[in-house]
Amino acid sequence: MKLTGCAAVVTGGASGLGEATARGLAAEGVKVAIFDLNAEKGEAVAAAIGGVFCQVDVRQDASVDAGFAKARAAFGQERILVNCAGLGNAVKTASRDKQTGEIKHFPLDQFERIVQINLIGTFRCIAKSAAGMLQLQPMDDGERGVIVNTASVAAEDGQIGQAAYASSKAGIVGMTLPVARDLMNEGIRVNTILPGIFDTPLMATMKEPVRQALAASVPFPKRLGAPAEYASLALEICRNSYLNGACFRLDGAIRMAPR
């Protein structure tokens, strides 16, 4: 796909992997709409790249609909959707307090929240974006659009406490090929990236010894991934029309240990 002049939506585009992708797309002449809950950061990134910010909660149909309406009013129907919105937590399925002996289980409302944002929110944006892409005229190879999702290496190597996060990300991996097949006759491609340990705002809150230990656990290169490296792969997926229905680990060859 030729990127210049296309419109794109990046969910979670106010920071981290989403921000890097939004900036990378804009540098290629793409008109970018940022979906995020953080209005202060989202507005700042949108202003810096000549984009538009849409305050969107991916858990809510009305919010997502309003976001797409605003984005399309500004730039027209998007040909590119990159789903980066998501979050995680760390809670054991069931555990015993070492001091009191009290037994607890994973709060189901927290499990549901992770799945609602990471998995259902991703699919909600895919379905609504793809419905809009169907109205576009085909480009080269009959292509109408491309969708890039963000899973995680936790989808395959989930650690202790990651039952909700890992299952939500595994769901994204699992739906990649079926959704690509759903949309193949309409010229819409669907791929997913599984990032490893990246230097995102979450990592910035950790103490330096922890960051260094995480970096040292990566086989090669022994460092945290740079958001620009995620963005580079996302852009190549958009450019390369033969990439479809695939999931790509971007992780420096790491395989996560149990903890």
Automatic annotation (TrEMBL):
Keywords: Oxidoreductase
Keyword field contains Chaperone: no
InterPro entries attached to this UniProt entry: NAD(P)-bd_dom_sf, Sc_DH/Rdtase_CS, SDR_fam
KW Oxidoreductase (keyword) present: yes
Regions annotated as coiled coil: none
GO molecular function annotations of the record: oxidoreductase activity
Similarity annotation: Belongs to the short-chain dehydrogenases/reductases (SDR) family.
PANTHER family, A to Z: 17-BETA-HYDROXYSTEROID DEHYDROGENASE 14-RELATED, SHORT-CHAIN DEHYDROGENASE/REDUCTASE
Name used for this protein in its record: 3-hydroxyacyl-CoA dehydrogenase
High-level lineage: Bacteria, Pseudomonadati, Pseudomonadota, Gammaproteobacteria, Steroidobacterales
